[in-house]
Amino acid sequence: MADLTITDVRLTPVLISDPPLLNVQGVHQPYTPRLVVEVVTADGTTGVGETYGDTKYLELARPYAELLPGHSVADLNGLHTLAQQVGVDDARVEHAIDVGGLRGVQTADKLRLSVVSAFEVACLDALGKAYGLPVHALLGGKVRDHVEYSAYLFYRWAAHPGGAGESDDWGAALDPAGIVAQARRFVRDHGFRSFKLKGGVFAPEQEIAAVRALAEAFPGQPLRLDPNGAWSPGTSLRVAKELEGLLEYLEDPAPGTSAMAEVSAGTDVPLATNMCVTTFPEIRQAFLTDAVQVVLCDHHYWGGLRNTRELAAVCRTFGVGLSMHSNTHMGISLAAMTQVAATVTDLDHSCDSHYPWQTEDVITRRHTFEDGRLEVSDAPGLGIDLDREALDRLHRRWLDEAAYGAMRDRDDAAAMRRAEGREDWTAPALPRW
Ligand code: GKR
Ligand code: MG
């Protein structure tokens, strides 16, 4: 019988390169922080997990990690109980909208869940490795062999201003032709069959034109548009009317549940969210007012893979669809996303992933999309191995405070201020249009 007691926990913050992707809050910084969590058990098994690496998550993860030695990796419920012992500074949760993350409400519990999620994934990875079982088996077993992902299209600049960060050969995408070219490259390289455009960057007319251009280039293929709450209910309804019949769903057109309910009452275009339903307490109002027809799950902020399955059960009960949200992430998270997605029967939309934009990783073999899908690994745990050299290199970048310290917190508005050379630039109040 394996000794599953945690004897050691390692936290490794890293900075990974990120292209200049635009959204309503600004632009991605040249580097984004992520946190790699490792739990080591008494018999020497190591499990890994990944979550946000911004300061507020690190401040919580550090004291939390100290509570874990002596805990069993099999006691997943206990992870949540332990998290309640760690206090959260109120100043960390005062903003209703997370400026860089566009991930909805910020509460102390949600911060805890975002931290616990990485430890839960690490524990499941260790447990799977100890018993020779894939994580999906620990969640009840896979119901599919492949998980489908969508191409995540962004308006973007060719490069970060001033030559900052790593360069790439994507070029700028700032109009419909640029977005279609980007989509074609995603299809060529990864075979994606559905497309999501991050909106809220340009006036709605320009984004409508981009969706129309995509519909023309990829007839009949699922399309989504996500302006992250940039529009008023009136504007949202106008866009919905213009794009009726072209969209699989419209994601967070207006900010907040009431505004979404108003939009929903006036259109047959399904509305999706990863902003107004991001915690269990928000579900009731949204579902009772029919504000959303699709919820984007995200194991990071919903608190892990098992909570993701609980969310799926609630959505199923209310006849609400399920999709999957993504932020800048590495291959550890993608492995976790794929393992849980493989177990959820009613995940009936392809999942979002920023992964194709990420050229840096801490795993030995990058995930490869084929026909827009990832094969579900049956190897023990998450089925990935840490690349220690890469982890060390990206951690050293994080440690280099003089050069990269300003990027230890994701802040798209700060990146825009630097880019525009305007200290007074602020992200627009929502709704913007
Ligand atoms: O990475 O710019 C981005 C996205 O806008 C991200 O922050 C959002 O949380 O992808 C997300 C979304 O679907 O809203
Ligand atoms: Mg979204």
Give a description of the structure:
The protein is α/β, with parallel strands linked by helices and 433 residues long. The chain folds into 2 domains: 6-136 and 386-404 and 411-418, Enolase-like, domain 1 (2-Layer Sandwich), CATH 3.30.390; 140-375, TIM Barrel, CATH 3.20.20.120. The protein has helices at 55-67, 76-83, 108-131, 135-138, 176-190, 204-217, 233-243, 257-265, 283-288, 299-302, 305-318, 331-341, 388-399, 401-404, 412-420; strands at residues 6-17, 22-23, 26-27, 31-41, 46-52, 146-148, 151-154, 195-198, 223-226, 249-251, 271-273, 294-297, 321-324, 373-375. The strands form 4 sheets. It has a 7-stranded parallel sheet, with helices on one face. Strands 1-4-5 form a 3-stranded antiparallel sheet. Helix 2 packs antiparallel against helix 3 (108-131). It is globular and about 60 Å long. The structure holds D-glucarate and magnesium ion. Residues 21, 23, 101-103, 198, 226, 228, 274, 325-328 line the site of D-glucarate.
For the largest sheet, list the strands in their spatial order: 7-8-9-10-11-12-13
Bound small molecules, which ones? D-glucarate, magnesium ion
Mean pLDDT: 96
Shape: globular
* Uncertain runs: none
Helix content: 25-40%
Which structural class best describes the helix and strand composition? alpha/beta
Tell me the quaternary state.
single chain
Instruction: Indicate the CATH class of the largest domain.
Output: Alpha Beta
| CATH homology superfamily name of the largest domain | Enolase-like C-terminal domain
- Return the string of H and E elements: EEEEEHHHHEEHEHEHEHEHEHHEHEHHH
Give the termini separation.
61 Å
- Approximately what portion of the residues adopt beta-strand conformation? 15-25%
> Measured on Cα atoms, how large is the radius of gyration?
21 Å
